[in-house]
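Troubleshooting: if your tokenizer reports a length mismatch, compare your output against this known-good record of 449 residues.
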Amino acid sequence: MEERLSARILSTAWPAVLEMALYMLIGLADVAFVGRMGAVHLAAVSLGAEVFFGIILTLTSLGIGATVLTAQYTGARKLKEINRLAAQVLVLSFSLGIITAVAGWVFSPSIIAFFEVEDAVATIATQYLRATFAAAPLALCLYIGNGVFRGNGHTRVPMTIALFINIINILASYTLVFGKFGFPQLGGLGAGIAASLAHVVGFMLMLAAMRSGRWGVRLELRELLPVQGRVISRMFKIGFPTGLEELFRNASTIASSLILVHLGTQAFASHQIAIAVESLSFMPGFGMAIAATAVVGQALGARKPEVARRAAIMSFQFAVVIMGLAALAFYLAPGFLAGLFTHDKSLVATAGILIQIAALEQIPIAAEMVFAGALRGTGDTRTPMLVAFIGTWFFRIPLLWVMVKILHLQLYQIWFLFVADWCLRAIALLIIILRVKWADIEPVNHQSW
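Known-good structure output:
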């Protein structure tokens, strides 16, 4: 039994790990290309990517309801409900995307103005944002739609799509950023256009996968209209707390940037490089969290609470091993990792120190992500949201402001605050997960539509 469960978790997790890593590479590839053009371009595209993906991922997290419902309907073998859910996912996603695209185009200059960066940085960042927001409707359909495949355990489908997206993004970004093959040199604007083209291709592939019916869902166009308010309402009810959680997480990142830019362009660029490197290590945690949500949800849908409990613990154990290896790499080779994103020796030196500090965060991050994912699989999306809210607005941001604006500490000293924040969140979620009464959980799939 244990062997079958571990195999199930790993078979769900490893494609999700690669998928998350590949999606992260969309932004990282842009940063890596423009990093060759100097600190101004690096800071601009880093900031633009941070804002765009922060907003998109916040909206995408509303779709966690689709993943949870799909997982529990899969466990209960209610396939018609999954098909109906997939159609309504696309309706909701596209509608949110249209609003996001229009608002993003109009307000991009104002968003960047909040960061009080140099005029040259602001101009390039705005260009990047407007280019990426143009594809927001299809990007949201892609990201939220992939949640259906994650919920039913077919995580290889989103992974394969992510691979093609990265191939398109890297080729297009290289061509447009540097002006290769007869195209003009567009710099940051080229990176934004490349990201949008990649999202369009990804959406088309995801739609084809849903229509084929080969991977646990068959999209029927007749299910798109009329809009079924009850379906969307149930999905939104589960997903809204996770949307808030992601909002708090991304708001924390943006608020941190608003504060850290006061340390100067060089310090901010070093911080962005360290964040880019560390984001690679997040992928195993994200993957295991997805596996925990899916397997826990499927087990509860099949009325097997003990399997759900073991899946939560086992997912954490796997995440610790993988992210522990990442911590070791951060500590032993920080300069090499920073050098992947810039040739500026001063930036490499400063970012290297931050990367070594980030090694201390890896195990707490594993705990926070996986235990939050397991709770979502039970249908409890509020608890992870509350932990994120308290950690962000009652700990991280207030102390960060004090450390920068009042104590005037160095950047490497400030990064120890981030370590403490992750540790506190991990401890809180560990205590909560140990107190869960698995046998008393009522699956959210007990009703049909």
